[in-house]
Design brief:
This protein is an alpha/beta fold. It folds into 3 domains: about 120 residues, 3-Layer(bba) Sandwich (Glucose Oxidase, domain 1); about 120 residues, PtsI, HPr-binding domain (Enzyme I, Chain A, domain 2, Orthogonal Bundle), CATH 1.10.274.10; about 300 residues, TIM Barrel (Alpha-Beta Barrel). Helix 17 links the parallel strand 12 and strand 13. The structure holds phosphoenolpyruvate and magnesium ion (MG). The site of magnesium ion has 5 residues, from helix 20.
């Protein structure tokens, strides 16, 4: 049994079987010293993998020749040739024999050396073979038990995906009937991959260091999405304990679900708008079932992350219309695309950005890709003819961006007037506050928008200079940090002065302790993942606004996030033990 610590990003406990997605970008394998007596057996392992690979490649060559012709099938002959080439085989055998290393390490290190030489070769024919060499190394490693020959299409039920990293789109495209959890070696608490896991209610642990070296496809695994633990090949006692806990977790969520039906009113009678965050229209049902009274954040960029082609105006329109129909009169806040950073654009670029979270992302990307942006604006406007729709611009950093966004919106209204198509001419236009500059300048922005929505995922990252996707600094990613709280207080004050509503739609709003602070800081609308709403309602109904205000005032006064966090939790444990006992901060 092996236990690996990671970061819990989506709750729930799953007991299943591992499916390792190979990391094709690198050739990372364990480096193991072999006992002298075991060297012949290790050489045999390599020989077995080589022969099995050649046999498979031979089959592939035959079928490719029949289906695509001899020329196209030649690539497999090249692969077979490499596996018979003494200049490749001898160094591998030497690493095993002379250095006493395991076959996996011998293969990976030799292929890496050859691939580097090919990449640096002046002849482009050699350069173009680098990926083939990497594939070949993976093929050999697979025959030594690394990764799996299964494809993602043939997964068994109860599969737990294990990968070095996953993109949000890979995660969004998992077959939910088969994949029941995932674990990645990289990733931070509010990476978009983590957010998709929450949206799909898929228990997940990210930042599980070493998982790729330890996990093998087919192994039994427990994913503890409550504590951020991964257990490989659990012993009987652990298995039993987790089976019991699974039942317990279900009971708690059942008892919380009673709160879904009750109104979100504080103990002193102040109504709080509790809305849902969605990435896909089909999540709406889940939000409403959990007591949400609308959608406070629709991350529309997921339209780009699931299909193979760029969505057309009609694709946008159909999705928005579907949301409006499902909401049946409840409000829908559509955020314009937030591509860039960890979503989509880097993979399209020949030279990826060096610092994508500080790069051409979000509204900046939209303003640079006007045609795409205008297409979306038109679709949102057309949808607004069918129900209450608001529009929201992400990552606004300066007033010029906001004005440009609004200018394009006006132009698209004129375009629709000319086309004779209907839209809501009074559509509310808001902005996300997720950059410290915007929070500090909230007074200026408040005069030009109809509402603010605070995006703590990014606000925390940019205020504390902590990459939200980086597991190495994940412990520094602390929303209950006095600096973050001060910025939120400034934003709500600016909103109040200008009489515009201020909501919060970052992941931390789903944390009941943070939600209590938000109420204390003046936020009256919270938008969070559907499954978190019942617990939030229970918290809201247990506290009064003056209690929350005192909590926030004190938390802001501390010098450190650690003091603020433990103070908040201790206070709340006394007031609402059912929610806060045993809960970590942040
Ligand atoms: C945020 O930054 O808090 C937010 C809601 O936007 P996203 O997570 O999509 O960046
Ligand atoms: Mg954001």
């Amino acid at each position: 049994m092996q236990t690996i610590n990671g970061i819990a990003v989506s709750p729930g406990i799953v007991i299943g079987r591992v499916f390792v997605i190979e990391d094709t970008s690198t050739l990372r394998v364990a480096r193991r010293q072999i006992e002298k007596d075991d060297i012949p057996a290790e050489l045999e392992r390599f020989e077995f993998a080589r022969k099995a690979s050649i046999a498979h490649l031979d089959e592939l060559h035959k079928s490719a020749a029949a289906e695509m012709g001899k020329e196209a099938a030649k690539i497999f002959l090249f692969h077979i040739g490499v596996l018979n080439d003494p200049s490749v085989l001898n160094p591998i055998r030497e690493v095993i024999e002379r250095d006493g290393m395991n076959a996996e390490h011998a293969i990976a290190s030799t292929f890496l050396t050859i691939a580097k030489k090919f990449a640096a070769h002046p002849d482009s024919t050699f350069q173009s073979k680098v990926d083939d060499l990497r594939d070949l190394a993976h093929r050999l490693l697979r025959h030594l038990g690394h990764g799996s020959n299964q494809t993602l299409e043939n997964l068994d039920e109860g599969t737990v995906i294990v990968a070095r990293d996953l993109t949000p789109s890979q995660t969004a495209n998992f077959d939910r009937d088969k994949v029941s959890a995932f674990v990645t070696g990289l990733g931070g608490p509010t990476s978009h991959t983590a957010i998709v896991a929450g949206a799909l209610a898929l228990p997940a642990v990210v930042g599980a260091k070493g998982i790729m070296l330890q996990a093998r496809s087919g192994q039994e695994i427990i994913v503890d999405g409550e504590r951020g633990l991964v257990i490989l090949e659990p012993n009987d006692a652990t298995l039993e304990r987790y089976q019991e806990e699974q039942i317990e977790v279900r009971k708690v969520s059942l008892s919380m679900s009673e709160f879904a039906k009750l109104p979100a009113i504080t103990a002193d009678g102040v109504r709080i708008n509790l809305l849902g965050n969605i990435e896909f229209p089909q999540e709406i049902e889940h939000v409403i079932d959990n007591g949400g009274t609308g959608i406070g954040l629709y991350r529309t960029e997921f339209l780009y992350l699931t299909g193979n082609q760029r969505p057309t105006e009609n694709d946008h329109y159909e999705s928005y219309k579907r949301c409006i129909d499902l909401l049946a009169g409840k409000p829908l806040t559509i955020r314009t695309i937030d591509l860039g950073a960890d979503k989509y654009t880097q993979a399209q670029e020949e030279i990826p950005e060096r610092n994508p979270f500080l790069g051409l992302r979000s509204i900046r990307y939209s303003l640079k890709n006007q045609k795409m942006f205008r297409t979306q604006l038109r679709a949102i406007l057309r949808a607004s003819a069918h129900g209450p729709v608001k529009i929201m611009f992400p990552l606004i950093t300066n007033i010029a961006e906001l004005r440009s966004g609004k200018y394009f919106l006006r132009e698209e209204m004129e375009e629709l007037d000319e086309r004779g198509q209907k839209y809501d001419p009074n559509i509310e236009v808001g902005m996300m506050v997720e950059v410290p500059a915007a929070a500090l300048m909230a007074g200026s922005f408040a005069r030009e928008v109809d509402f603010f929505s605070i995006g703590t995922n990014d606000l925390v990252q940019y205020t504390l200079a902590v990459d939200r996707t980086n597991e190495r600094v994940a412990s520094m990613y602390t929303p209950i940090h006095p600096a973050v709280l001060k910025l939120i207080r400034d934003v709500t004050r600016a909103g109040r002065r200008q009489d515009i509503p201020v909501s919060c739609c970052g992941q931390s709003a789903a944390d009941p302790a943070f939600a209590a602070l938000l109420l204390g800081l003046g936020v009256r609308t919270i938008s969070a993942t559907g499954s978190s709403l019942p617990m939030l309602k229970k918290t809201i109904r247990s506290l009064t606004i003056p209690q929350c205000e005192r909590l926030a005032k004190r938390a802001i006064s501390f010098d450190s996030e650690a003091e603020a966090g433990s103070y908040v939790l201790n206070r709340l444990r006394k007031r609402v033990p059912e929610v806060f006992d045993g809960r970590p901060v942040g």
